Amino acid sequence: MKKLSFNQKRILSEIGLLLCGMVWGGSFVVSKGVMENLSPGWTLGFRFFFPALFLALYLRKRLLRAGARVFWAAALSGGLQFLGTILQMIGLTMTTAGNSAFITVLYVVLVPFCMWIHTKKRPRWTVFLAGVVCVLGVGLLVLQSGASVNIGDIWSLACAGVYSISIAVISISLVGGMDALVFTCVQFLFTALPSFIMGVALGPIPTAEVLFSADVLWGLLFLIFPCTIFAQIVNNVALAYAEPSHASLIMGTEAVFGAVFGAIFLGEAITLRFIAGAALVAGAIVLSEKTKDKSVENIRAR
Length: 302
Hints:
This protein is mainly α. The protein has one domain. Helices cover about 80% and strands about 0% of the residues. The longest helix is centred in the N-terminal third of the chain and has 25 residues, at about 70-90.
């Protein structure tokens, strides 16, 4: 079988990131429903512990061979993922799913700044313009009836900042040649552990009746399998090839898909404003595609 070129791998990675955006777009509504009965700490702990266990069993030999550098980088990434996701979940309990999706996707604008600090290379101005256009498009999609700032929105804004750092850490680590699956396994573990600690510390400890209720059980299964085992693994592998600023724009389509799912499952209307927002997001991705640099490919080539 012919070996894939770097550009072919990049295209496949970007398709994978788009699928991640689709799955994560549905997670806002699902998470909000689960947390009506389960605290954010327990929700996040269960979501990441079982994928970590699954990967650890599958990768046990590769985990033993992994060096300390992989564990340190993955532990840092896991801690950032815990912090960012718990901020998002706390904010989600205090604001609407639409506001949360819009504010969280602001990491699209922040990622180039994080990479700038690391590479000491200022991104092209068009990358920043693409990020702004993407955010404007998402705003049209998810804030159909306007928005007001509340404490939940502030938590979501903090989440966007942490997520931008997390994406930069993952990109820098995996582009350096680390084993993506081993990295992901350790990342999951260091997301789950502080989540359980938070759940125990803040309580209440969930009962079997709560865990096995239909809303919580099916919600957790969705968060564990499509959102985490599939999407997070695909995300981490894809970030080894996709240019970070462009990757963040594609992942930002999670808010687009969130709006689509709202129309399908919640009966929300597809308006001209929705169509305009979708067009802006698509335009931002095309703009980013036309202006991305070769930094990732150069690193992989060394």
